[in-house]
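go over both lines:
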Amino acid sequence: MRLDKFLAERGLGTRSEIKALLSKDLVTINGKVVKEAKYQLADFELEQVVYQATNLSPYSKQVFMLYKPVGVLSAAKDDKSPCALDYLPSNLQTRKYSCVGRLDKYSEGLLLLTNDGELIHRLTQPKWQIKKTYKVTFSPELKAGEAELITSQFANGLEMKDLICKPATFQALSANTALVTVSEGKFHQVRRMMAHFAHEVTSLIRLCEGPIELGNLQTGEIRPLNAAEYAKLYAEVALERN
């Protein structure tokens, strides 16, 4: 397989973008810098391709970050709707990747995909209290003093008839937008929390999960974590990546 094709399938960009990063000495094979896009990878070299200290082996534990679009399911397969795992490089779609938690069909933003089962377990277990931040747009607009009320009740742990939430944060950005941070992943939690105050969520974008931030990733884009992101994510749940 050509090196540029191998890198493209791992979400590192278009063929032209890959030529540019190869020219910057960012890719090594078996410890040696390779700049030639047409370089033919031998089978034994597939596990030795490294980009910015991240091993791109298709067989090692990997994590991808996806900007999940609205309308896409956090699932592997569905007969009627597109799924998050459809965005993985084609050569990885037959391997055992799963979504880390769920982001409902009508929400968008950061969704992690990985083949590391223990990482998924820890990131989704309440014990680890992994924080997730969302940009929320809602209607109607906040009334005078309402932002302070919601902020206070979120901070104390919201109790509703059908849902009890751990302390969360609410930071109003405008009369109809806010940043909401929770440390749980209950069904439609943020939407239900806002509905408690008679506000309907019209847009929900996940901006970060633990130490991983959406950054400038665009709708439908996917890429592997870089070395620094891997280190932060695994440290967050006291795991070593191997």
Observations:
- The first strand starts at residue 27 and ends at 29.
- Helices lie at 3-8, 15-22, 117-124, 146-156, 189-195, 227-236.
